[in-house]
Amino acid sequence: MSGPAPAIKIDGLRKRFGSQDVLRGIDLEVTPSELIVIIGRSGGGKSVLLRHMLGLVRPDSGRVVIDGQDVTALRGRALDRVRERFGVVFQGGALFDSLTVLQNVLFPIKEKSGLPMDTIMPRAKEALAQVGLADMGHKFPAEISGGMRKRVAIARALVTEPQVVFLDEPTTGLDPILVNSIHHLVVELHRRFNFTGVMVSHEIPEIFRIAHRVAVLHEGRIRVVGTPPEIEGTDDPIVRQFIHGEMESDGT
Amino acid sequence: MIGSLVLDPLQRLGRAGTEAVGALGRFGVFLGQALFWLTIPPFKVGQGLQRVWFIGFRSLSVILLTGAFTGMVLGLQGMLMLQRVGSEAFVGPLVAIALVRELGPVLAALMVTGRAGSALAAEIGVMRITEQIDALTVMALNPMRYLVVPILVAGVITLPILTWIFDVVGIFGGYLVTVKLFGLSEGTYFGQIRTLLSTTDIWVGFWKSLAFGVVVTWVACYKGFYVGHGAEGVGRATTEAVVLASVLILVLDYLMGSVLP
Question: What is the tally of structural domains in chain A?
């Protein structure tokens, strides 16, 4: 692939849990500022792949190079320095139960920047306003709906203005209207902040409307990577079956 | 076929053995890591105070109740026993020394295990399965520093205080039974305590309560941190935290009792 150096380069990533071969040699390059969506069967290792990129799981072999540094080999402060450029939206939102919505969004900048409260508070409020929840700041995560929690998680991930944003199935468990609204939000925020986005999803065909590129994970390997039209028009029977199967089951 | 019949159980035994040793190692490393992060600023004072409130203040009522009744039972049994040999004058020191050296630290720690230890294990377990701990990690904020160290420090601060409260309330419980019920003179009860309760006894109790403060919070945090899957995992972690902490407290009480003067 020509063009700029990849923001993320995954090389021969392998991971086995007990007798289960989850990742069997993943190779993938993510270009700076692109929004790539990884799709695949549930339980197929999409989240495991994402956790490798975050340095939460160590592979049996292979590398994940982000900004020139192999996160699978880094530890402690060195790994933290790479992570400081990340924003992560976890599957369930992973909001801190003991903090209010506003405190959740405030948390990463408060702990990391060391700036005075009157500087960071407007930033947190603005981030919350961007996801359309300006008046929900005083509520606790348990008091708001699932869709709102995902929005708060997105606000919290973006408040530090990260270079790379990872989204782990940000629309799981939401109804189709909310799925679209979250996707729309991601696209809008991507346009505004121009981050490199890696999203794991099973929302087919919705993600074809927002992804720059789509990677299909099948049996522990990246079966195919391409633009949404390329993937939708592929001859690969497995990918066709997967995409169309998902679309059919989605329609019923 | 026969080979596998022999080898399978052996293999399973070996695997269980290595898993047990691995878990024990992880348990020790966990405390080591927490102690390491304890020395590295910035310190999360606010978090620590919140935990002192949770572990300490909210355990107060159960400590007052159990302390009072323990002292009363000791007073009652001590009085009945010592009356037989005509030495009821010594019931005060009996109550006080038993409380200060043994029952205060142990029962206070067991009460805190039941009330706060289980809740902490469940809280941290839920944070683990809902990826809140991962969220801290990827924010480049160490969960040891943000979560475990404040709890450990709060345990070390609150358990000695709760133990002293348990002791004092217990001694007054004994006073109620022996002086108010059996008619022992107040001067005898407190006078003999003053004469026979030594500072060594108080120190022994203090060191024990300090150690138990570490044990309760360490076990609770560890079990929550390495929780299994789902709600069932959290339930199991909570139970295991209470059982393991209780056993360790009693074992450690014996060991410290035999080593300390």
Answer: 1
The domain in which residue A132 lies consists of 95-161
Domain ranges of chain B: 1-40, 45-259
| ipTM confidence | 0.88
Q: Determine the Cα–Cα distance for residues A147 and A142; give it in Å rounded to an integer.
A: 12
B139/A107 CB distance under 8 A: yes
The CA radius of gyration of chain B, in Å to the nearest whole number, is 22
What DSSP designation does A60 have? S
A155 assigned to some structural domain: yes
Among residues A115, A64, A103, the alpha carbon closest in space to that of A86 is found at: A64
Q: Is A97 in contact with B139 (Cβ distance < 8 A)?
A: no
At B2, list the tokens.
Answer: 């026969």
Cβ neighbors of A54 (< 8 A, separation 6 or more) are A71, A83, A86, A88, A166, B134, B138
Nearest beta carbon to residue A111 from set B131, B134, B141 = B141
* pLDDT tens for chain B, residues 1 to 261: 667 777 788 888 888 888 888 888 888 888 888 888 888 887 888 888 988 998 888 899 999 999 999 999 999 999 999 999 988 899 999 999 999 999 999 999 999 999 999 999 999 999 999 999 999 999 988 899 889 999 999 999 999 999 999 999 999 999 999 999 999 999 999 999 999 999 999 999 999 999 999 999 999 999 999 998 888 999 999 999 999 999 999 999 999 999 888
Q: What share of chain B is helix, strand, coil (3-state, %, to 5)?
A: 90, 0, 10
Q: Which amino acid is at B213?
A: G
Contact B139 A83 (CB under 8 A): yes
Q: Would you give the DSSP letter of residue A1?
A: -
Nearest to B130 among A86, A92, A112 (CB): A92
Residue at A66 is within a domain = no
